Amino acid sequence: SPGRLGHRFPVCQTRGRILIELDRLAEARSALGAGMRFCEELGVRWALAAHQMYLAYGRFVAGEWDDAIAELEASIKLAEETGETYSLVYAHGLLSRISLYRNDLNRAREAAAAADRNLAGWGSGHSLTWVAWPRALILEAGGEPGQALGTMAGLWDWCASSGLALEYPAIGADLVRLALAAGDLGR
Question: What is the pTM of this model?
Answer without folding.
Answer: 0.86
